[in-house]
Amino acid sequence: ALFAPDALAEVPIVGQLDLDGRQVEVSGQIDRLARDGAKLIIADFKTGSRPDSIPDAYVRQMALYRALLQKIDPGTVIECRLIWTREPAIDVLDSAELDKSLTTLPLS
Q1: Is beta strand 22-36 parallel, antiparallel or unpaired with respect to 77-84?
Q2: How much is the pTM?
Q3: 32 and 9 in contact (C-beta within 8 Å)?
Q4: Given strand 89-92, what is the order of strands in its sheet?
Q5: Pure H helices in 9-106
Q6: C-alpha distances in Å from residue 107, one per residue of 19, 32, 56, 96
Q7: How would you write the pLDDT of the chain (108 residues) with one tens digit per residue?
């Protein structure tokens, strides 16, 4: 679905989230976005080799994008994937880990 003719590439995403009373500004770019039936899939390309564990920053990035999309399309299942370009490999991020990462955003 991510490479189907109706999939989108390099989609800008900008918005504000209220996370436990704290306003968080988000600005980024979704590398690939596609609808697969009732599910929305977002993917980010990562250069290099797949690490033993996914860096927290990557999980937070995708969690923020997912949270903004959930504001636009409430109730839609949004699946987040990281696509590693060196191996190649794909990781589908766990929804619970994405949710947890939003509660541990660093203050800055």
Answers
A1: unpaired
A2: 0.92
A3: yes
A4: 8-19, 22-36, 39-46, 77-84, 89-92
A5: 56-72, 95-103
A6: 12, 29, 15, 21
A7: 999 999 999 999 999 998 888 888 999 999 999 999 899 999 999 998 899 999 999 999 999 999 999 998 898 999 999 999 998 899 999 999 999 999 887 655
Work out the burial of residue 28: count CB atoms within 10 Å of its CB; fewer than 13 is exposed, 13-18 middle, 19 or more buried.
middle
CA–CA distance, 92 with 99 (Å, rounded to integer): 14
Q: Name the E strands within 20-58.
A: 22-36, 39-46
The helix (H) or strand (E) run that includes residue 73 is none
42: which 2 tokens?
Answer: 């977002």
Q: Which of 49, 52, 19, 15 is nearest to 30 (CA)?
A: 15
